[in-house]
Specification:
Layout lengths: L1 E2 L9 E4 L2 E4 L17 E10 L2 E12 L5 E3 L2
Parallel strand pairs: 1-3
Antiparallel strand pairs: 2-3, 4-5, 5-6
Length: 73
């Protein structure tokens, strides 16, 4: 599994050579509204079967006017 960050926007999720890759999870708490995209983020809910990943779900949030995350799923 590879988890990357810092782009301040949600990036793609994909399998690369049999490994799960999350390019960016966006912002969970961020007090600068540069754009709509920087007001979104999330976390991953990962299910394992033994040592293998069987499911990955991105739980999306959108920051409100107070820069607090609100669940979107």
């Amino acid at each position: 599994m590879v988890l990357m960050h810092h782009s301040h926007v949600v990036g793609p999720l994909e399998m690369v050579q049999g490994r799960f890759v999350a390019y960016s999870l966006g912002n969970f708490i961020f007090d600068q509204a540069f754009s709509e995209a920087t007001m979104e983020g999330g976390w991953l809910e990962i299910t394992l079967q033994g040592k293998a990943i069987s499911e990955v779900v991105l739980k999306k949030v959108k920051l409100n006017e107070f820069y607090q995350p609100a669940l979107q799923n």
